[in-house]
Write a structure and sequence with these properties.
single chain; about 850 residues; three-stranded antiparallel beta sheet; 20 strands; MetI-like_sf
């Protein structure tokens, strides 16, 4: 019988859906992720024991005093084993998935109960959903939604929906038919019959279904840890992949506590929402023995809610005022809090290099997030853009199949270690086995087993497809699939007993230092040439994160460095990988700066590090650009600058009184002359940093016959009698109104509209798009001249005055208060090209992302920090 290509059809269908309904999947992803983020924020915000008290209070309301005490103790135990954050992530996943499931399951169950055709149709679908192995749902979930929370929630909804639908249908159908008939006989509308008779009587059965939904959801979200869903699932998956008994037991205990709490609370909720159950509860409490009444007493709903609200308010207050977490030590704030997602395979060199980069990126001001994945999920996640980069790709051989499949969606950032080798190894006490040919002859010695690692690993695929057939090992040997940790555990046991064992290994690996092993030679070259260990990234990562990409591209470790790093992590123990990295960095001083050098020397602090100058700025492009540039430079030198926007008049007043220390946009000697003359006794001119400025009126080049200010006369109708201005307090505006318009006889013909620079630019863009005449107040340098074709109107009478220079002005106490900073500013100078490119970078970054724009510009101008703020060694 010919093979039915069912799998290929399903795969084609999945690909078609992904390609044609991406908008729908993006919408679902946004909604689910938003729901999860909201719930997780609420659960993760309060202090652990305070939230445990809130959950215990709910248990008291639902079940009584003893369950409340046990619930509090259970959650306290989770906090004590340092799994509180993961437990709350899991609880958020369960709640979100449970709510979505119930929203769909209950109406579907009601529909099925009232229509036998619907019931017959959905029954096989529910059977399929419930019996399909849970892991299978994760595969299309990755393709549709990438890695992380969303595919886990979607798979959980599908897996946990059947009992919700079935129990709802069953509950409605079990309602006494005579009651329904009586309601119908009295002329009750079917909808009122459903809501007033059937649904209340079916509620106990429906709530039992909800309970099952919650429990199945909990089991599924743990499995979802395999695709990067946060929470205890990730902990359990990591424990399984590393055969870590302690981590697995602790993660399992936390899951059990959550499961028991959710099971007891959802089952007891029926007693609060069902009229029948409330009556049964009242009878039960009445029969309780007097001595035990206190254990059975449950507070009224109003009392419980007041308690919850009070505790929640306390929790909120503690979250606002009690957070003393200092976070990681930042030696050079290059990242400015930017998130970076790093994936890794749970192999020793992968763990070591990943947590090394996690520590380095944190020191450089980034917020890296690391997550362990299986090899296939890692490549799929990177190709989909869910993972930024990873550091453990064995190419060109071991991971050749993955690279071939996904290379069009990935970037290779280069190799950091090599050459490597893949091999089968046996203990040196096993005699007569030196090559893979020798191994084939002694299958009985090794019980016909070769102990392997993760089934998705490239080495395992190479073993199955090439090495074992090449040496005839597939006839007498079985390749045992498991994990790296399981293989190492079996090696340790066999080595201790001096038992023969053959394992898949690779070099470098710390096992060769711990045990005396023989690498079996590969005379046929079935394993291929030695691999290199490459760092791969999602497509576009280098463009989005040029500095990090540059560091990764230059990343190199020697065998001694790598093995010592792995050893330090092994010594630190599971769950303390970053502590091991920090210990290794202390043993290798200067390594952080070597691996992640900061342009200008991020670790060099200024003599006045810790000083906090107040920098004022106008909302003008050159001032925004230079202010955020100096903010970045000063922070790298250990200063703590504050910046604040002012109007021109307020700026000069604030500087004269000492409320503002310094500003970088003093247009002198003309544009701001009146302010300088008024306040110069209390100010100091630190020096000019840019020359050849000009003030002007500009019009689009499509406006003909207007080349100078004199040409504006008589053409007010063309421009609507208006010149679009900027902030009314600026020197240019006062000069325009007080002198320029009068000089050219335009003061009676034109009105200058007060506003702001952004408003003027917005009007220019609108008019330019419609090819409408417009006259605007502008100045040089300005990026608008690059974006639009504009005509600077000539000023033959020199009414705007001579060219200005851009000066740094400061309060008179500034030189003594900040001598180092003052010295840097005196020597500072920018070219037109530098300023224009800096302004453009900030424009490209967009409003609110000025620091990112500055950072990108600085990455493209290495050494700028040393140039602007040199520090003597």
């Amino acid at each position: 019988m010919p093979r039915l290509q069912l799998g290929d059809w399903i795969n084609s269908g999945v690909n078609w859906l992904r390609d044609n309904l991406s908008w729908l999947f993006d919408f679902i992803s946004s909604v689910v992720q938003g729901m999860y983020d909201g719930v997780n924020t609420v659960l993760s915000g309060p202090e652990p024991l305070l939230l445990a008290g809130i959950l215990a209070l709910l248990a008291w309301w639902l079940r009584g005093l003893l369950p409340a005490v046990l619930a509090f103790l259970g959650f306290a135990l989770i906090d004590s084993i340092e799994l509180w954050g993961e437990a709350m992530n899991t609880l958020a996943l369960v709640l979100v998935a449970g709510v979505i499931t119930v929203v769909f399951a209950v109406p579907l169950g009601i529909w099925a109960s009232r229509n036998r055709a619907v019931s017959a149709t959905i029954r096989p679908v529910l059977d399929f959903m419930q019996t399909m192995p849970a892991f299978v749902y994760l595969i299309p979930g990755i393709f549709f939604f990438g890695l992380g929370v969303v595919p886990g929630v979607v798979a959980t909804v599908i897996f946990s929906m059947p009992p919700g639908v079935r129990m709802t249908e069953l509950g409605i159908r079990q309602v006494d038919a005579e009651l329904v008939e009586a309601a119908d006989a009295f002329g009750t509308h079917p909808r009122r019959t459903l809501l007033g008779v059937q649904f209340p009587l079916a509620l106990p059965t429906i709530m039992a279904g909800v309970n099952q939904v919650i429990m199945l959801a909990l089991s599924m979200v743990v499995i979802a840890g395999m695709v990067g869903a946060e929470g205890l699932g990730s902990t359990v998956f990591q424990a399984i992949s590393s055969v870590d008994v302690a981590m697995g037991f602790e993660g399992g205990i936390a899951v059990v506590i959550l499961a028991m709490y959710l099971d007891r609370m959802t089952s007891a909720l029926n007693q609060r929402v069902s009229p029948l159950a409330r009556r049964a509860l009242a009878k039960q409490n009445a029969k309780a023995l007097s001595g035990l009444k206190v254990l059975h007493w449950r507070p009224a709903t109003s009392v419980a809610m007041v308690g919850v609200v009070v505790l929640a308010l306390v929790a909120g207050g503690m979250s606002i005022f009690g957070d003393d977490d200092e976070g990681p030590t930042v030696s050079a704030n290059v990242g400015k809090g930017q998130s970076v997602n790093i994936g890794y395979i749970n192999w020793d060199e992968g763990v070591a290099s990943t947590f090394l980069w996690k520590e380095l990126l944190e020191q450089r001001g980034f917020k890296p997030k690391v997550q362990s994945y299986d090899v296939g999920a890692l490549y799929t996640g990177m190709a989909a853009g869910n993972i930024d980069f990873e550091t453990d790709s064995w190419l060109p051989t071991t991971h050749a199949s993955y690279w071939s499949k996904y290379k069009s969606k990935l970037e290779n950032l280069g190799s950091w270690y090599g050459p490597t080798s893949l091999e089968v190894a046996v203990p040196s006490y096993v005699k007569g086995v030196k090559t893979l040919d020798d191994l084939e002859k002694k299958a009985g010695t090794f019980k016909k087993k070769i102990v392997g690692i993760e089934p998705g690993a490239g080495e395992m695929k190479l073993m199955q497809d090439k090495v074992m057939p090449g040496y005839g090992l597939n006839k007498n040997f079985t390749l045992v699939k498991g994990s790296t940790a399981a293989m190492l555990s079996q090696l340790d046991r066999s080595y201790a007993k001096k038992e023969p064992i053959a394992v898949t290994l690779w070099s470098p690996h710390w096992a060769y230092d711990k045990y005396e092993l023989t690498k079996l030679k590969d005379p046929k070259g079935a394993f291929g040439k030695g691999d290199r260990i490459d760092s791969l990234a999602r497509k576009g990562f280098s463009k989005d994160n040029p500095q990090v990409a540059k560091w990764i591209k230059n990343f190199k470790l020697t065998e001694k460095q790598l093995t010592s790093l792995e050893s330090a992590i092994q010594d630190a123990g599971k769950g303390k990988e970053q502590q091991g990295v920090r210990a290794w960095l202390k043993q290798n001083p200067g390594m952080a700066n070597k691996l992640a050098p900061v342009p200008g020397g991020g670790d060099q602090k200024g003599k006045d590090a810790g000083a906090a100058p107040m920098i004022g700025y106008f909302p003008w492009d050159e001032d925004i650009a230079t202010t955020y540039l100096w903010k970045n430079v000063l922070e790298r030198r250990g200063y703590k600058p504050e910046i604040k926007q002012y109007d021109v008049g307020s700026m000069f007043t604030g500087m004269s009184t000492g409320q503002v220390d310094v500003e970088f946009d003093g247009w002198l000697p003309v544009a701001q002359k009146q302010y300088w003359d008024k306040y110069k006794k209390n100010l100091v001119d630190v020096g000019s940093w840019y020359d050849k400025t000009s003030l002007e009126i500009a019009v689009p080049s499509y406006v003909k016959d207007v080349k100078s200010l004199a040409d504006l006369k008589g053409k007010a109708g063309t421009f609507g009698g208006k010149i679009v201005g900027i902030e009314p307090g600026t020197g240019e505006m006062k000069l325009l109104k007080g002198k320029v318009l009068k000089e050219y006889g335009l003061d009676k013909e034109y009105k200058v509209s007060d506003g702001s620079s952004p408003a003027m630019l917005a009007q220019l863009e609108r008019s330019y798009a419609k090819k409408e005449p417009v006259a605007v107040v502008l100045w040089t340098p300005h990026w608008a001249y690059s974006k639009y074709k504009l005509t600077k109107l000539a000023d033959p009478k020199q009414a705007f005055g001579a060219s200005n220079q851009l000066h740094t002005l400061a309060n008179k106490s500034f030189p003594k208060k900040f001598p180092e900073f003052n010295g840097w500013l005196k020597k500072w100078h920018m070219t037109e090209k530098e300023l224009a490119s800096l302004e453009q970078a900030i424009q490209d970054a967009g409003k609110g992302n000025e620091e990112k724009g500055v950072q990108k510009w600085m990455d493209a101008n290495p050494g700028i920090v040393d140039k602007m703020a040199p520090v003597a060694p």
